[in-house]
Amino acid sequence: MQATEGVGLPGERAHADPDGKRLAYALEEVSTPAPDEAALRTAYRRFGNPDQARLPWLGPGLVTKVLYFVGYRRGVGGVQPLILDRVVASLLPAVAGVGRRNGWSAEEWLAYLRWAAEQAQARGVEPDAVEMAVAQDW
Which of 60, 63, 119, 135 is the one with CA 20 to 30 A from 102? Predict the structure, then answer.
């Protein structure tokens, strides 16, 4: 596997993924019919680990976008993968569990997902509707 310097990853080595094996490995847990919190945590962590699935130019904000599009299950409620980028992070209330604008840990992302699931249940909407409302200044 060819190593390249990843943009936005100063001092770290990121690996290219010409055959897609690193991406497939990162996504295997969320590609199931009903990924749970453990699967979401595993996938997020794999993307952050240069020995497992870190890819060039794919930082936490883009990772959560990938996880949303692969792992979100409409109509099942509960904790669902949502996008957490700088815009969303800057608009979240403190009770959402995200204390910084970038570089989130898996636990910070999961705290946000739990908060969004609670908000969605209370309002009778999908968790991604909570994310969209936050991005539109909830």
Answer: 119
